[in-house]
Specification:
It is a single chain. With 127 residues, this protein is mainly alpha-helical. It has six helices and no strands.
Length: 127
């Protein structure tokens, strides 16, 4: 029972994280547009569609029948946006040196593999 309860909590927390972040793409798109790497075209469209993907993945993660497919989609999304996280750190370091914000962007980088592992464990490995 404890394992099932903790698995449910992780699933809801994870789905909520993606639903919140995906929704923020529509509420505050400028925040996401600013962190887009310069070499990626169509910033507005990319922010919109990545928000759609996050919301869809978050919703799909809530339903056991869809969780496997949602998890694979979220893993692909997390891998696809990782270059933006690296670019955000590099830009911050170049503009600001190693201030608090730069350190936060650097410390955020190892979180991405943890999120991927989390998606895998609760969405694919438990399928």
């Amino acid at each position: 029972m404890d394992t099932l309860l903790s698995q449910d909590i992780n699933i809801y927390l994870f789905a909520g994280l993606f639903l919140f972040t995906g929704t923020m793409h529509f509420i505050k798109p400028d925040v996401f547009i600013r962190i887009m790497p310069d070499y990626i075209p169509f910033h507005n469209a990319m922010v919109f569609w990545s928000g759609v993907a996050e919301v869809a993945g978050g919703i799909g993660y809530l339903f056991p029948e869809m969780r496997f497919f949602a998890a694979w989609g979220l893993i692909i999304l997390l891998l696809a946006v990782f270059p933006a996280n690296i670019d955000m750190f590099l830009k911050a370091r170049k503009r600001r040196g190693f201030d608090l914000f730069t350190w936060i962007t650097l410390l955020r980088l190892p979180i991405q593999p943890v999120l991927i592992w989390w998606v895998f464990c609760y969405g694919i490995a438990s399928y």
